[in-house]
Design the sequence.
């Protein structure tokens, strides 16, 4: 990571914030992007390496283009794009009052990553760089009460798996990151049935991985330019069980949500 220029979205909180610390300590030069510029500046003061900040709402394609352009203007090149920004939901589908939530999830979790990647790709080809897509185990299997979120992460995984094939021979690697449950601000801001943020995490946070623990493992996966990283043994086993015993996976997913609430 020494000297690499990295554009990191969703850097103000959770996994993104913890990962920024890991990357900076390893010598990376960071363009930190998120909607909350004040939190980014607080983070920037804690980092030992070179960094810059930019306000970015990934749901706006024009802002995505501007973020990539700002990175090139600041550092002169781009070696890695980490698509980490995301939002989530907690509600049974039939209880949703405002179905535009589904569009919001797609714009942030999937389309934002696609727009950023499109703008970054010419620069990443020049540097023979890397694209990192921070998805979720929900991008590999269905999860109750998170149907719209799971759909957006399935789209993200499918997109980047397809892009990896298109980029064969270009020197650009694509890494898909699928964490299990992680302590993060994303859960406090999860959108409920009424379309409003919950305000507090519905998770039992003492039973799940911290953002720092997750970031440490994600850092190793990124540094190794791994094709896929899955954040738990349950998730790794689930990929095989889904083929052999799909009904069992449905029950495991339902139980996992019930136990964390």
Sequence:
């Amino acid at each position: 990571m020494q000297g690499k220029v990295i554009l990191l979205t969703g850097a103000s909180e959770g996994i993104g914030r913890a990962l920024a610390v890991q990357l900076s300590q390893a010598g990376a030069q960071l363009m930190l992007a998120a909607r909350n510029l004040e939190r980014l500046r607080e983070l920037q003061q804690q980092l030992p390496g070179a960094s810059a900040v930019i306000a970015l709402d990934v749901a706006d394609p024009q802002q995505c283009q501007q973020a990539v352009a700002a990175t090139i203007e600041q550092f002169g090149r781009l070696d890695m794009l980490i698509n980490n920004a995301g939002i989530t939901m907690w509600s049974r589908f039939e209880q949703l009052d405002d179905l535009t939530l589904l569009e919001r999830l797609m714009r942030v979790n999937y389309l934002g990553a696609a727009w950023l990647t499109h703008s970054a790709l010419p620069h990443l080809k020049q540097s023979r760089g890397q694209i990192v897509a921070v998805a979720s185990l929900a991008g590999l299997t269905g999860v109750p009460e998170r149907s719209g979120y799971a759909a957006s992460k399935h789209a993200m995984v499918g997109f980047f798996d397809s892009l990896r094939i298109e980029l064969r021979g270009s020197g650009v690697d694509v890494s898909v990151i699928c964490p299990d449950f992680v302590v993060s601000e994303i859960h406090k801001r999860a959108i409920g049935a009424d379309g409003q943020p919950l305000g507090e995490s519905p998770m039992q946070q003492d039973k799940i991985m911290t953002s720092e623990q997750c970031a440490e493992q994600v850092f190793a996966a990124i540094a190794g330019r791994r094709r896929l990283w899955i954040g738990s043994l349950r998730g790794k086993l689930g990929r095989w069980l889904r083929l052999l015993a799909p009904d069992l996976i449905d029950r495991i997913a339902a139980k996992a949500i019930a136990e964390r609430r």
In short: The radius of gyration is 18 Å. DSSP finds nine helices and seven strands in the chain.
